[in-house]
Amino acid sequence: MAIEVRIPTILRTYTDGQKAVEGAGATLDELFTDLDSRHAGLRERVVDGGELRRFVNVYLNDEDVRFLDGISTKLTDGDSVTILPAVAGGAR
C-alpha cells in the first residue's frame, strides 16, 4: 500500500530534503511508524504521547484528520497525507 506524504519545509531535514515521501500503513499511526523507520525522528515531531501534536495539522486527502479519527484514521492505497505545522502570531 503506497501513501504519499507531503513534508513541510521545517521537517525536510528528516527526509533528506524531499518534499514528499511514500509510506505504508492501515492507519496514520502505522504510517508514521513506517516513515520513522526510514526517516528517524520524523514521528517524534508529529506524534506526542500517542496523539498528534497540538500544533501540527495533518490532512488526509485535504480533510483535517482531527475531524476524522485523529491518529487512528484509516488509510487506503493511493491516499495523500499532508503535514502542516500550525502558524500563529503576527503584528498588533
Automatic annotation (TrEMBL):
| Span of the signal peptide | none
User: Would you say which domain of life the source belongs to?
Assistant: Bacteria
The name this protein carries in UniProt is Molybdopterin converting factor, small subunit
Gene3D superfamilies (UniProt xref) = 3.10.20.30
Per its UniProt record, what InterPro entries does this chain match? Beta-grasp_dom_sf (IPR012675), Mopterin_synth/thiamin_S_b (IPR016155), Sulfur_Carrier/Prot_Modifier (IPR052045), ThiS/MoaD-like (IPR003749)
Species name: Actinacidiphila rubida
SUPFAM superfamilies tied to this protein: MoaD/ThiS
Q: From which residue to which does any coiled coil extend?
A: none
Q: What is the lineage of its organism?
A: Bacteria, Bacillati, Actinomycetota, Actinomycetes, Kitasatosporales
**Classification via Pfam families:** ThiS
